[in-house]
């Protein structure tokens, strides 16, 4: 039964982005849609009394109070329940001016509709059983997607692939629950392998849940952009590398060591991957208090980075204690040997051996010239390979996309672990049954089978008004 039986309001909103464009989109949903449409829209070649659902009509918008012509527009009426919200809907496509679009919206409001709240169209779709809560979240993630990876994962979520994984886990829970109920109802019966099957299912379910939980960190990484810190001693060309990557002079470049005192952060795309590049102060011992604070900030950025480009001057390969600490703590550290254009005799094999054997880098060095651009494609390829490797945690591009989903999976996993321990310890089976049922309830909450109005309000307020 729909939650909206008492919500009889017809809602409307501008669904296109603000500002001027070729066309705008104004949408409405509710029982009065056809009545409002007949008031304000006059098709060129058809009477609105015979309007068909899902047909595009060209006509004129009129202000019904003054009978004045407002704009030429296209319009489509969609009969419920076969619409996005499950209700009668219409969309109007006028010219994309700011004033005329708002004026048409005001005419619709005067005709009996009210302005939609944030996300109210999608909320109505959920409450009218047109989409699940997971799919509603997927729609929001598609709108917010800033990389191909996040877009693919969100689209797979919208396609129902995440729900299938959750349903598979739920089926395993139900199998375990049925086993426990059988042992409770028929204590005298001997069920072959029931204990071993129960524990096997519990392990398999826990593994699937952990896989989904871990996918959230990977998804967040793709959302915020892979962070890469450019580090190294002073005057090795870190700022020049940043400028070359950005193809503009973002950082001050000077021959004076210690020019960069604070970190500089910029965003760019590496192939199709969103990347955050951070240029940092040179790492060295110093008596200058301001420079020392900059070095502390640099080290903090390095610790939080997903990868580090550690830059050397090809003519001055020296190591310091900070480099040793970085290599001990960070896995994705790429040695970048800069200033190839200043090297007279290019005996790079000796340099490579020193970096790998003496400095103990696990990644092969990349040789570049920030001045000429030589080697930059190799450096980008090395970074791209690290990003791809970090993304391999999401199997088949199916994962969770919100902290709500993650918390409910953690909650369900906790109930599963409790049920498994109680089963192994020989605790009353009724207690095992209760934990399994609570675990199933948490899985149902992810999809939206069990939820409450407060959760819905928080979720749908993140949407824009016209969605």
CATH topology of the largest domain: Rossmann fold
Structural class: alpha/beta
| Rg from alpha-carbon coordinates | 30 Å
CATH architecture of the largest domain: 3-Layer(aba) Sandwich
CATH class of the largest domain equals: Alpha Beta
Shape: flat
Name the average pLDDT.
84
Q: What's the quaternary structure here?
A: single chain
- Give the beta-strand count: 14
Q: What percentage of the residues does DSSP assign to strands (E)?
A: 15-25%
N-to-C series of helices and strands:
EEEHEEEEHEHHHHHEHEEHEHEHEHHHH
Number of domains: 3
* Biggest sheet character: 8 strands, mixed
At the fourth level of CATH, the homologous superfamily of the largest domain is: P-loop containing nucleotide triphosphate hydrolases
N→C terminal distance? 23 Å
Which consecutive residue ranges, at least 5 long each, have pLDDT under 50? 1-6, 251-261
Helix run count:
15
Subunit structure: Homodimer. Heterotetramer of two MnmE and two MnmG subunits.
Organism: Candidatus Acidulodesulfobacterium acidiphilum
Main location: cytoplasm
Binding site for (6S)-5-formyl-5,6,7,8-tetrahydrofolate: 27, 91, 130, 467
Quick rundown:
By secondary structure, the chain is α/β, with parallel strands linked by helices.
